[in-house]
Amino acid sequence: MPPPADIVKVAIEWPGAFPKLMEIDQVCASVWSLGNPENFALQIADATNFYITEKVCSSYQTALQLHERIQSTSMDAKLEALKDLANASRDITFAQEFINLDGISLLTQMVESGTDFGDLLSFTLTAFVELMDHGIVSWDTFSVAFIKKIASFVNKTAMDTAVLQRSLAILESMVLNSQDLYHKVAQEITIGQLIPHLQGTDQDIQTYTIAVINALFLKAPEEKRQVRLRCTHTQTHCIYCINVIRSNTPINDEMAHQLYVLQVLNFNLLEDRMMTKMDPQDQAQRDIIFELRRIAFDVELEPNNSGSIEKRKSMYTRDYKKLGFINHVNPAVDFTQIPPGMLALDNMLYFARHHQDAYIRIVLENSSREDKHECPFGRSSIELTKMLCEILKVGELPSENCHDFHPMFFTHDRAFEEFFCICIQLLNKTWKEMRATSEDFNKVMQVVREQIMRALTAKPNSLDQFKSRLQNLSYTEILKIRQSERMNQEDFQSRPILELREKIQPEIMELIKQQRLNRLCEGTCFRKISSRRRQGEFWYCRLSPNHKVLHYGDLEESPQGEVPHDSLQDKLPVADIKAVITGKDCPHMKEKGALKQNKEVLELAFSVLYESDEYLNFIAPDKHEYCVWTDGLNALLGKEMTSEYTKSDMDTLLSMEMKLRLLDLENIQIPEAPPPIPKEPSNYDFVYDCN
Predict the structure, then answer these.
(1) Cα–Cα distance measured from residue 609 to residue 587, given in angstroms and rounded to the nearest whole number
(2) In sequence order, what are the residues at sequence separation of 6 or more whose Cβ sits closer than 8 angstroms to the Cβ of residue 50?
């Protein structure tokens, strides 16, 4: 038998329990005496307002009402209707009904009319974006007038933030979803008009602007993406400044350098250079390497007829080795690997020209070191450039799931090169801190990557802030952070780690025990606490070196150092000690007097019970001595040491020992179970006979 029409089955989940399919009466007409129950449905009462219904009758009624309300002549009523429409449009059931009522056309007409502004326009565009996100209507259906209107909102210098954000989102979707709309949008929006939006402080606007630029470059034909402009920052020849989309607005060199900031984030330029191999036969490219040599060693290019060819080759090879290239004979070969290709050479030349002192210092400093400790500048620059491209995802398509935003790249017209210059100096500094050799190259690069990633996590607003952040992330600090994180990781709760802790604990406890006994052998001066010893104000007690006898006796005054055994008249064999008593259970604390009322003294009191009913009573000078003596005496009796200091020492020493033992296992996955024991060999003929 089919279920009643008013019953809808809804899957309901509860945390920690299995989901259940429950039947819900979606109308409850008998309860509220509702007429035309087919016009009602259940709706989730949260921010989504999604419908729980198997029919679309109620969503149709809502769509019809909103379709009428947004055409109201009252501005207040119209605003409320648009707010409701923007909220309801997120539900695909409602969106389908509203679109069937030609709601999209109504919204575009309202935008094209230009009569709405402020919140009215903002909610109109919000509703439009929400409806289009469902993919029900094709983007190709919109008129040029609508595109021009949306573009005008972006081109205005002063525009409501919400309107600007929605307009940028609409333009991005138009470009990505229709090649025809790309051409129309490209005619209305130029790169120069988008630049001001990147110079503001609103990160959402900056992000949406970058998204539009990414979309324009992705959809642009190849010939339009390969427009090259001469770079006035270089003195000898054009390295490669910027790719732009041709537009009706002339692009001059000044604007090109402004656009470089966009391209650092767009990464089309960087990707092109990164994937360009160096041609070892290209003289213009080889001149760049000669320029690096000239700046580093202050040498001029020798004429071809100066000296023998072999002599000049030997001189070049020596200098290229000092520059840290892998191939000393022909360093151009080092740049044939892609990535990073020519991008690494661009970065090196920029560093040499714009940070000449730092460049010369790094090259000369490493060329004068011992070979095993020199940091190869050439190899480091190539690998660092490759690493930076990986960190910033150069060459990857824009992802809607990525929310990384780095404001510092908007603060310099050559931001990526400056970023490299900071990081190459960091690499050289870290190399020295690690006292690395050529075999440690990969380890150094791993540490540098971690330093850069941790500094970027703070989202510095400028390159100076990024540099300052790196100064606080030295190699020593990285080690501390790693150790701290490792102790807090789940790995430290894994079975192998717990077993290792259990194995180490007895060793640590034995170390603490020996320290306590050694301290008892040194002895301590105590104040007198009974009439039994009236000759002096102090008495001294110490353990014999063989740990078999306690020596004690009265003193005239507090000693300046250790008191010899032979000057202490009384002895107590350790074998005669029956127990150690502490606190209020001590005999001298049970006696009437001021000591009984003093809580501080009570916490420092302990007694040694020997023979049948004899006691040796103590009041420690401080808490530390109290813990040392009670621990030491318990250790002599073979009992557990339970003082606060023992627990503290155990935690400290155990933590240090665990860190030391796991230091060599960094970045190694520790298995949960031990490896299987191999089978016994068929014979033991391989064993060496010592006889």
Answers:
(1) 10
(2) 43, 44, 90, 91, 93
Whole-angstrom CA distances from 93 to 56, 65, 103, 471, 558 are 7, 15, 14, 55, 91
What letter does residue 4 receive in the DSSP assignment? P
> Are the beta carbons of 168 and 211 closer than 8 angstroms?
yes
The yes/no answer on whether domain 507-648 falls in CATH 2.30.29.30 is yes
Q: What is the DSSP string of 273-337?
A: HHTPPP-TT-HHHHHHHHHHHHHHHT-PPPPTTSS-HHHHHHHHHHHHHHTT-S-SS-GGGGGGS
- The answer, yes or no, to whether the previous bond of 339 is cis (omega within 30 of 0) is yes
Q: Exposed e or buried b for every residue in 341-380, given b needs 16+ CB within 10 A?
A: bbbbbbbbbbbbbebeeebeebbeebbeeeeeebbbbbbb
Encoded tokens for 25: 């009466």
Contact 93, 51 (CB under 8 A): yes
pLDDT, position 264: 39
**What is the token pair recorded at 394?**
């150069």
Give the three-state DSSP class for 544. coil
Among 227, 232, 219, 217, smallest CA distance to 250 is for 227
Largest CA distance in the chain: 112
User: In this structure, are strands 614-619 and 7-12 parallel, antiparallel, or unpaired?
Assistant: unpaired
* Average pLDDT score over residue span 514-541: 77
Per residue in 310-353, pLDDT (tens digit) is 777 888 888 888 888 888 888 888 888 888 888 889 999 999 99
Question: Across the strands, what pairs with 122?
Answer: none
Percent helix, percent strand, percent coil in the chain, to nearest 5 = 55, 10, 35
CA atoms within 13 A on the CB side of 176: 16
Is 563 exposed, middle or buried (CB count within 10 Å of its CB: 0-12, 13-18, 19+)?
buried
* Strands of the sheet with 605-610, listed across from one edge: 577-582, 605-610, 614-619
**pLDDT band at residue 487 under the 50/70/90 scheme:** low
Cis amide bond preceding 340, omega within 30: yes
Q: Which of 392, 463, 456, 451 is nearest to 426 (CA)?
A: 451
Q: What pLDDT score was predicted for residue 419? A: 93
Q: How many CB atoms lie within 10 A of CB 132?
A: 23
253 pLDDT more than 50: no
Write down the H helix ranges in 89-240.
92-100, 103-113, 119-132, 144-155, 161-177, 179-188, 191-198, 203-219, 222-225
What pLDDT score does 213 carry? 81
Strand 538-543 to strand 549-555: parallel, antiparallel, or no bridges (unpaired)?
Answer: antiparallel
Confidence of residue 247 (pLDDT cuts 50, 70, 90): very low
- Sign of the alpha-carbon dihedral angle for 510, 514, 516, 517: positive
Average pLDDT over residues 50-76: 74
Are 373 and 443 in contact by the 8 Å Cβ rule? The answer is: no
Q: Which residues contact 562 (CB under 8 A, 6 or more apart)?
A: 522, 523, 542
Closest CA to 274 of 443, 149, 416, 380: 416
Provide the percentage of residues in the chain whose pLDDT is more than 90: 14
C-beta neighbour count of 304 within 10 angstroms: 8
pLDDT value at position 447? 93
Q: Tell me the average pLDDT of the chain.
A: 78
Size of the chain, expressed as the number of residues it contains: 691
What are the boundaries of each domain within the chain? 1-40, 57-137, 140-250, 283-299+316-486, 507-648
Q: pTM higher than 0.70 for the full model?
A: no
